[in-house]
Amino acid sequence: MAKTVVIDPVTRIEGHAKISIYLDDAGEVSDAQFHVVEYRGFEKFCEGRPMWEMAGITARICGICPVSHLLASAKTGDKIQAVQVPIAGEKLRRMMNLAQFTQSHALSFFHLSSPDFLLGWDSDPATRNVFGLMAADPDLARAGIRLRQFGQTVIELLGARKIHAAWAVPGGVRSPLSEEGRTWIRERLPESRATLDIAMNLFKRFLDEFGAEAEVFGTFPSLFMGLVGKNGEWEHYGGHIRFTDSNGNIVADGLSEDNYRDYLGEAVEPWSYLKFPYYKPMGYPDGIYRVGPLARVNICSHFGTPDADKELREFRDRVGGVATSSFMYHYARLLEILACLEKIEELVNDPDITSKRCRAEAGINNLEGVGVSEAPRGTLFHHYQVDENGILKKVNLIIATGQNNLGMNKTVTQIAKHYIHSNEIPEGMLNRVEAGIRCYDPCLSCSTHAAGQMPLHVQLVAGDGTVVDEVYRD
Amino acid sequence: MPTWEKVVVIGYGNTLRRDDGAGQKVAEAVAARGWENVLSLAVHQLTPELAAEIATADKAIFADASPDAKTVEVREIADNFRENLPFSPHTSDPKGLLSLTKLLYDKNPKAWWVLIPALDFEFGEELSPVTVTGIIDAVAKIEQLIIA
Prior knowledge:
The complex is a heterodimer. Chain A is of the alpha+beta class. Chain A has 14 helices and 16 strands. Chain A has one domain: Orthogonal Bundle (Cytochrome-c3 Hydrogenase, chain B), CATH 1.10.645. Chain B is α/β, with parallel strands linked by helices. Chain B has one domain: HybD-like (Rossmann fold). In chain B, strands 2-1-3-5-4 form a five-stranded mixed sheet. The radius of gyration of chain B is 14 Å and the shape is globular. Chain B starts with 6 loop residues before the first strand and ends with a helix. Chain A binds chain B through residues 11-16, 41-42, 44-45, 57, 60-64, 66, 107, 111-112, 125-127, 129-131, 134-135, 138, 141-142, 144-146, 148-149, 152, 162-164, 445, 447-451, 453, and chain B through 12-17, 20, 43-45, 47-49, 51-52, 64-67, 83-91, 99-100, 103-105, 118, 121, 123-124.
């Protein structure tokens, strides 16, 4: 009798989700589906609004990565206004994005995922969380908070608010970094570097011990997509789109965001509100690709900063060139924090960063524009169509979590197939399925926080719809 | 010199989900009062680093939208420590954050949860009349908590 295992919701990710695992008559896993049950209505909500409001509106989609939408929106506005952003404006936008990566990756690593590393996947889920982490290593927990604060404060110094700063606008940014801000960043950088070093060493020790098991966490061939610079270097703001395969071969390069519809398709499945983007030339679902830290690290030739490049060489030695395990998202996140801190250090000493010539002004000169930027979770596209007055007629947002949708489903299926071989659901398997999803650090935000909170609910449903077993996790 | 102790007010919610943004509106209104020794923060979610701010305060006041509240409710969070609560920015509550504060910084401020009536959580920025009234009432009640 076929059965369905439902895990609802996945804890410690942004938003709500549900996982169904389908068993065949022999009790073996036949398939798994990662459902996203929240409807993202922002695209419709934005239509009819002035284009200039988009940066502020989209930045309020989520409290965790508001800067990503802010920058993608501002870059789309640049295209519609047909302006060239002054060099100071671009450097300031870059600094904010680097700070955004730092704070978001710190939250993911220290507070959402490190309990898995420090406490183990077989530990009691009641304590396998940030409280358990604090009990195990309170200094690390405090340091993680300080690192996230560093990124948040850099954002605040630039945009006057930690989140939702409508500071990046079409044409540039509203204001430069102050001298006081520059001093603060310089003073706090060494502490942030030290914290990152501790985290890096911790993760490597974990990898030495559990690396073999980590291979189960979404190891499969796929394409990787992201931005790279003109020399193939790691990029987070400008550059062009590149696709590589699991062997490191460049599949497509020099792609412009303007033509994203030529190479990105968006499939729809009836069981999820989240779209399933794929690489169009390979079709659906063969055109599966991953975005985010792992993809960026895989597609780039180098970071361009000394310590991050040294760590990147060790990373590639460890994974054998190209990392195909999604578990390595965590490792890639740490590499990116390191690169971000080094690049912030470069920028904070750049004289342009305090220049008041940071914004170009213009009216509506194009009726359509596509902007792209790297968010912590992956490549983010904004596509607007406006009328002569800049009123939005159509909005399309391609978000990072959506682009990893196929990858997340494949990861869940792989983990479930590895651990489920009967009608019994071992606790450790549930922990691992959740941990597999957390590798991607998915952001499903758009839910209200005041409603819809539920305990973890695991349900075994027979083929005839009968619930044969249930497990609740408060 | 203010006559009250140091206070942190944290209003949280999603301002693009109509009444869900009530907590942030309250925090912004409190910040606009400019009360000395009062730090008022309007945030989307309760994230771990807020524990560091709470640790500096003698009183912590949380403002949030509630679909269950009929009028503004002020609940004292007396037993504000528990160690078996999964922490997530989307599923955390003031007790979780206060527990973090206690564990990480060994601080245990007096705390209250101010709940504002909320009806409509659809996409949008307009607030229900009952929520608008509730925001005004909540700010008044928070003022009483501050000066008490």
